[in-house]
Amino acid sequence: MERRLSKTIVVSMVPVLVAAFLFVCCARKSTGSSPVERGKYLAMAGGCGECHSPKVFTAAGPAPDTAKLLSGYPSGAKLPDIPKGILGPAQWGAVTTNDMTAWAGSWGVSFSYNLTPHPTTGIGNWSETLFIQSLRTGKFMGTSRDMLPPMPWQELGKMTDDDLKAIFAYMMSLPPVDNRIPEPIPPSRQ
């Protein structure tokens, strides 16, 4: 069991909530920056890359893979086994892969989405309106399945239209990464 835990980071939702809080608190206007620069600032301050960027493991610990920024859960990665008996109301609330791109909890398993402008595996064919609608409703593509934890859409959806437009502009300025994300795994199949 210890060996399995060494491959999985056990976490509470506190870091995610702190990142969401910082995201909202840091969303004040900065002067003289383009929407892309402002969006990059907001995305970095909000920690989007913590969950949506695959990591490389260095001597200093995990670091975002700069060639795959915001590209989500690596499509070729093998999902590690979820340790049995650690999730529950009186136990841990969630576990995550070492690079924090897949999360397991009472909702099942969620995979961080590809936020690069790739037209078929990312948000390349999304409109600014669709992006904002998704964050305001908590629905993938604004109308379909629920966005799952740890995605703090409730907090992000409270940001101003201008801030969300800036984040979208930044994401659309990234190099597109062809990386298809698996569908969420429901709790019954964990």
In short:
By secondary structure, the chain is an alpha+beta fold. The protein has seven helices and six strands.
Question: Could you estimate the helical fraction of the residues in percent?
Answer: 25-40%
Strand order of the largest sheet: 1-4-5-6
* Count of distinct structural domains: 1
Shape: globular
The amount of beta strand, in percent, is 5-15%
In sequence order, what are the helices and strands, one letter per element? HEHHHEEEEEHHH
Give the overall average pLDDT. Answer: 86
Biggest beta-sheet profile: 4 strands, antiparallel
The number of distinct β-strands equals 6
Radius of gyration: 16 Å
* Broad structural category: alpha+beta
Low-confidence stretches: 1-18
- Cα-to-Cα separation, first versus last residue: 17 Å
Number of helices: 7
Descriptive overview:
It contains 7 helices and 6 strands; from the N terminus they run αβαααβββββααα. By secondary structure, it is an alpha+beta fold.
Question: Which keywords apply here?
Answer:
32% helix, alpha+beta, disordered N terminus, 13% strand, 7 helices, 190 residues
Lay out the secondary structure.
Elements: H1 2-6, E1 8-11, H2 14-25, H3 35-45, H4 48-52, E2 55-58, E3 61-64, E4 94-97, E5 102-105, E6 108-111, H5 128-137, H6 153-156, H7 161-173
Antiparallel strand pairs: 1-4, 2-3, 4-5, 5-6
Helix pairs in contact: 3-7
